[in-house]
Amino acid sequence: MADVPPRPPHTGGRPTPEGSAQLDRHVLEVATALFIEQRFAATSLERIARVAGCSKASLYRRHASKEDLFTAVVAARGRLLLEETTAMEAMPKNPLEAMREITHFFLDFMLRPETLEAYRIVIADGHRIPSVVEGMMKDIAGPFMATIGRLLRAAEEAGQIHATDHEETTRVLMSLVLGWPLQNTMLRQNRLHDPLVRARFFDRAWQIFICGISTTTR
Hints:
Strand content: under 5%
Structural class: mainly alpha
Number of strands: 0
Shape: elongated
Radius of gyration: 20 Å
């Protein structure tokens, strides 16, 4: 199985809030690793509890079903993405530089094995887990797209780009940067497994995007 940290030590008695939070994180790490290795359908809560080193009762108190646990896994991935992008947006850079850095990070993040497997499960089983799709769109995609929209607005106000429909332009940017890489990797062609190859692809996609909206020739 993919490497996961060992369960945090438990000295017995009623768990402390810190110990409970550590176990919550550990369960999500184990569940993520098992979903990657065994896929969603073949992974049971019993197996997750056994590998995590906790009782089934403890796991069921946290997550009433496998679908509920998977929703929590997706939410955790989303928090990682948004924490990074929020930090990047706050850095003192011009809007286009910040948007380029965030978009490049997004490409790398989406092609990580744990993110890809979660995405595969959403595509294959999302119709059976509507809550995970709704949560992903509302709590992850929405805030991320809003970040790009704010940077586009700032770049427009700074005279770096032409006036544009920010929502539509964000969708175009995401399609340019992620469309083919995600399709290629989901089909297990792995053409962009090499970071250097992936970086060259991103540079070309970004150049095409900028040429379409910049007020200057690049």
